[in-house]
Amino acid sequence: MSADGFSNGPPEGANSDWTIDQGWAGYSDAEHQVWIALYERQATLLPGRAADPFLKGLEALDLHRSGIPDFKRINEELNRLTGWSVVAVPGLVPDDVFFDHLANRRFPAGQFIRKPDQLDYLQEPDIFHDVFGHVPMLTDPVFADYMQAYGRGGRRALDLGQLHHLARLYWYTVEFGLLSTPQGLRIYGAGIVSSLAESIFALEDPSPNRLGFDLERTMRTPYRIDDFQQVYFVVPSLQALLDATLQDFAPIYARLAKTTDIPIEAVLPSDKVFTAGAQTYARTGGRLAAQ
Ligand code: HBI
Ligand code: FE
Question: CB–CB of 175/189 below 8 Å?
Fold first, then answer.
């Protein structure tokens, strides 16, 4: 069993890099209907909430309403725009495999789609989270460079035993990042943009903190995997996000090793504060409170 809990080899029928054939022709009409239901909800909600690069990517890739997209089709345009491809995998893959794909501009997307009774929440990323949530941003040249830089950084973090710090950078940017724009805060994180409820909560609810992104501060901040985030970090531009990663992380990891984590709900005097959240949602039981 490897460090991250995977049996050593890829599952039966998968390639050595854990990729599988998407088998697009094999999706049932019911599965296409789940995609359409999820797509319609988000496509209605996101104008005015999602960042322009996301909305432009959604258009460019024509992740249209007629069902689960065929990776062969979207890869033609995605390759042309930024050299990225989407590859199908059975589900979560080992960290080193994941980073190697990203470092080579391949985004591993789950091949399966959630069940109709899981529209609002599932723990493991399915094809809607991965393709609707992550892939449109890969049409943006700056973000495309950032994701490749993350892949390269991930391999190095594994070597240095620092993955837990780097995973926070990924979580608070690629998954749950917000962008500051002249029109207000906008969503670029896949975990938010693929979720109906969190697309609203992340921008409008008074509970969470919304703080200016700072590389080391963010890497010292734990995150929630089971519920809405208690803090969202805001970048001034995607370029600023990319610039923050184009440096040697070894000295950063050395400094982090001497620091403690920052409590998830804390607002520091050094923070650029967009919202000092009331944390009401988290304090009243979170997901349970929402029911
Ligand atoms: N595998 N398919 C897949 N998708 C992910 O987002 C993913 C993964 N493996 C590891 C992983 N993410 C994270 O643990 C890394 O960011 C550390
Ligand atoms: Fe994701």
Answer: yes
pTM for the predicted model, two decimal places: 0.95
Nearest ligand for residue 193 CA? 2
Q: Which two tokens stand for residue 14?
A: 């998968």
Q: Phi first, then psi: what are they for 174, rounded to 5°?
A: -60, -35
CA–centroid distance, residue 164 to ligand 1 (Å): 12
pLDDT score of 243: 97
Domain ranges of the chain: 24-290
Is 203 near ligand 1, meaning CB less than 6 Å away? no
- Which atom of ligand 1 is nearest the CA belonging to 171? 16
State the CATH class of domain 24-290. Answer: mainly alpha
Ligand 1 atom 5: residue of nearest CA: 92
DSSP assignment letter at 270: T
In tens, the pLDDT along 45-94 reads 999 999 999 999 999 999 876 899 999 999 999 999 999 999 999 999 99
Ligand 1 atom 11, closest CA: 95
Do 157 and 165 contact (CB within 8 A), yes or no?
Answer: yes
Checking if the pLDDT of 191 tops 90, the result is yes
